[in-house]
From TrEMBL:
The lineage of its organism: Eukaryota, Viridiplantae, Streptophyta, Embryophyta, Tracheophyta. It holds the Pfam family DnaJ. Residues 17-82 form the J domain. It is found in: Membrane. PROSITE patterns: DNAJ_1, DNAJ_2. Its main location: membrane. The keyword Coiled coil applies. Gene3D superfamilies: DnaJ domain (1.10.287.110). PANTHER family: DNAJ DOMAIN (PROKARYOTIC HEAT SHOCK PROTEIN), J DOMAIN-CONTAINING PROTEIN. It comes from the Eukaryota. This is Chaperone protein dnaJ 15-like. Residues 294-342 form a coiled coil.
């Protein structure tokens, strides 16, 4: 799948029927859709049409259409409800590194580092050389490994030859990178013209201290983890990340290989530098216990995915209820605090020192108290009386001060 998958607004503004774009019928098989896509993607690929903006738009339209028809669930949604039935947030986003300028390449790299995985397309040159059968294929015998370094947007091709017995037992091809390089593991089918057509691709994922990708042809349905599924929706809603995590488990299109030579490739998918890798091919006959464990664990994961879909609905309802009651908690707390504050204010007014109501220039307590105090303490407020009161206070303080001093002199 070497297309340019777009998300939401990046999709063509005036969208045509995907079947019409790819020139296939609604009852076309997956293989017929894939073959039609390959031809059109190569025809309109930006690498081959650098000076033709119309071809670039057609390439996007072809890729967008294929992103719908190549996915069973999206195809079903489109067949039932048209474009309105598609979940825009769930659409993958895929960019073509070979057609990006330096600034946009840096932006894409940054975007990927921020936690939104980005699928990248495969260079048209690599696909065309493979289709023409002009690539160099190195042998990769079963039970061996080969290490190498591949330049960005280039590929190293390997031929894995298997017997009938080995094909019956199952085959595994894995690639790892201790340098945590980004790469793609590709599988090519023999084309009618003698070349090789891209059939499968696996993007490397970080697993522990390495990046790795693998293909497992074990005669039962195996699954691959596509981290770009719902990646944009998950970035917008971090809580969804947990529930959507297993949605990336997608069925592999090919579950077994026949006897003969099969072509695999390691594609350099780093943004700025070559990718270092080690590729190995194994016969599953020596790994029967591991094969059964893989089958069992994937069955458990699929069951858990269905449970999480149901649990998410329950969780969302409970979360909405929780937010509702926590909002009410805050409101009720504020109300109680305000009521107690008002009560304290009322309590504080029960005091002999409360405010005096002045009537006719003579002061008296508003609560009718008959307690009497020196009149100067209850003079009506006015600038003149304030001044007089101040001078009397000073005089009193002076006499009291002098008396103390005189008394002290006498004692001494």
């Amino acid at each position: 799948m070497a297309g340019l998958k777009m998300e939401g607004p990046s999709a063509p503004a005036l969208r045509r029927d995907p079947y019409e774009v790819l020139s296939v019928s609604k009852d076309s098989s997956d293989q017929e859709i894939k073959t039609a896509y390959r031809k059109l993607a190569l025809k309109y690929h930006p690498d081959k049409n650098a000076s033709n903006p119309e071809a670039s738009e057609l390439f996007k339209e072809v890729a967008y259409s294929y992103s719908i028809l190549s996915d069973p669930e999206k195809r079903r949604q489109y067949d039932n409800s048209g474009f309105e039935g598609l979940d825009a947030d769930g659409m993958d986003m895929e960019i073509d590194l070979s057609n990006l300028g330096t600034v946009n390449t840096m932006f894409a790299a940054l975007f990927s580092k921020l936690g939104v995985p980005i699928k990248t397309t495969i260079s048209a040159n690599v696909l065309e050389e493979a289709l023409n059968g002009t690539v160099t294929v190195r042998p990769l015998p079963l039970g061996t490994s080969v290490s190498g370094k591949v330049e960005k947007q280039c590929a190293h091709f390997f031929g894995v030859t298997i017997s009938d017995e080995q094909a019956e037992s199952g085959i595994v091809v894995r690639v790892t990178s201790a340098a945590q390089s980004k790469f793609k593991l590709l599988y090519f089918e023999q084309d009618v013209n003698g070349g090789y057509g891209l059939a499968l691709q696996e993007d490397s994922e970080k697993t522990g201290k390495v990046t790795s990708a693998g293909m497992y042809f074990l005669h039962f349905q195996v699954y691959r983890m596509d981290t770009t599924v719902n990646a944009l929706a998950m970035a917008k809603d971090p809580e969804a990340a947990f529930f959507k995590r297993l949605e990336g488990l997608q069925p592999c299109e090919v579950s077994e290989l026949k006897a003969g030579t099969h072509i695999f490739a390691v594609y350099g998918d780093n943004f700025f530098k070559p990718a270092t890798y080690t590729i190995e091919a194994l016969c599953a006959k020596s790994y029967e216990d591991t094969t059964y464990k893989l089958k069992d664990i994937e069955a458990l994961i699929l069951r858990k995915r269905n449970e999480l879909r149901q649990f998410e609905t329950e969780y969302r309802k409970a979360l909405a209820r929780f937010q509702e009651v926590t909002n009410r908690y805050s409101q009720e707390k504020q109300t109680v605090d305000e009521l107690l504050k008002q009560r304290d204010t009322i309590h504080s007014t029960f005091t002999v020192a409360r405010s005096v109501i002045t009537a006719g220039g003579s002061g008296h307590f508003s609560n009718g108290s008959s307690s009497k105090f020196p009149s100067e303490d209850f003079k009506a407020d006015s600038p003149g009386e304030d001044s007089s009161s101040d001078s009397k206070d000073k005089s009193g303080k002076k006499k009291w001060f002098n008396l103390n001093l005189k008394g002290s002199d006498k004692k001494v």
